[in-house]
Request: fold
Amino acid sequence: MPATRTGADTVTALLATADDLLTEGLDGDGPLTPAGRDRGAAYALRIALEAAVEAALTAEEAGLGGLRSMRAKLLCLHHYAGPGRARRAHALWNRLSAACKYHHDELGPTHAQVRVWRATVGALVAELAVSRVTMASPQQEGT
Reply:
């Protein structure tokens, strides 16, 4: 029976993959071009962000884990993670999605852009995990 990964393990592995793509081959060795590495890192970051949002929603409501559209998940995230985090996640997901698409008449993401996105995704993933923990165990008020 194959071992299954938790959401946190998947996100950690994807962030590590992005780090590897951003740091390996800076000297020009290997089969991937620098642009290919940057686009590959953007893919890994987008999937990591999607997995973190999925984990945050699955922890909150059993029914929300079944949503298929990432746009719908990001709208639901407003309620569970707060509007500020949800807006940042939505904007970041849009940028990463655009960076993942190849168009022959457009340049891909730059190495510096992908590095900034890596730091932003890492911070947002940590914030979503913290908000998930604090929302899962609310403080009881009253008596």
Notes: Residues 7-132 form one domain. The CA atoms of residues 75 and 85 lie 11 Å apart. Confidence is low (pLDDT under 50) at residues 136-143. The chain has one domain: 7-132.
